[in-house]
Write a structure and sequence with these properties.
Number of domains: 1
Radius of gyration: 15 Å
Structural class: mainly beta
Shape: globular
Number of helices: 0
Number of strands: 8
CATH architecture: Sandwich
CATH superfamily: TM1070-like
Helix content: under 10%
Length: 125
C-alpha cells in the first residue's frame, strides 16, 4: 500500500488578505490527498493552535482511487480556521493516503506559492 494513515502539517498560516480574482487567487492553504486504495478513505483533521484548545475533527471522505483537494479557508464545521493565525494539523485516515500541503499568498501582486509533502506520522499498516 502507498501512503500513511497519519500525517502532520506543522506550518499552518492562512494569509489574511488577497489580491486578484476570486476564488482562484484567494490566499489560502490546502491539502491535496490521494487515496490509491480500493477502499474509500474516511479522513479526520484536528487543528492545533498556539494559544487555544484544538478544534476538530473536520471530516471528509476520499473515494477509492481518487484525489481530494481541500482549502482550509473553506472549513466551517465545527468552526472556521482563523486567518493570520499560526496552526498545525493532524490528519488521520482509515486507509493509507498521501498528503501534500500548499499555501498561496496573494497579498500582493507578486504572488508566492509554497508546497511540500506533509510529515508522515505513522506507518501505513
Amino acid at each position: 500500500m502507498i501512503g500513511q494513515k497519519q500525517w502532520v502539517i506543522a506550518d499552518g498560516w492562512i494569509p489574511p488578505a488577497s489580491s486578484g480574482p476570486e476564488p482562484e487567487m484567494t490566499s489560502h492553504e490546502s491539502a491535496c490527498m490521494v487515496n490509491m486504495n480500493d477502499a474509500e478513505a474516511d479522513v479526520e483533521m484536528v487543528v492545533y493552535f498556539t494559544d487555544r484548545e484544538p478544534v476538530g475533527p473536520y471530516r471528509m471522505r476520499i473515494p477509492a482511487q481518487r484525489v481530494l483537494h481541500v482549502r482550509f479557508n473553506d472549513f466551517a464545521e465545527p468552526e472556521p480556521i482563523p486567518l493570520g493565525t499560526d496552526y498545525s494539523v493532524l490528519i488521520t485516515a482509515s486507509v493509507p493516503i498521501v498528503v501534500q500541503h500548499t499555501r498561496l499568498d496573494s497579498r500582493q501582486a507578486a504572488n508566492a506559492l509554497a508546497s511540500t509533502i506533509a510529515y508522515p506520522a505513522s506507518t501505513g499498516h
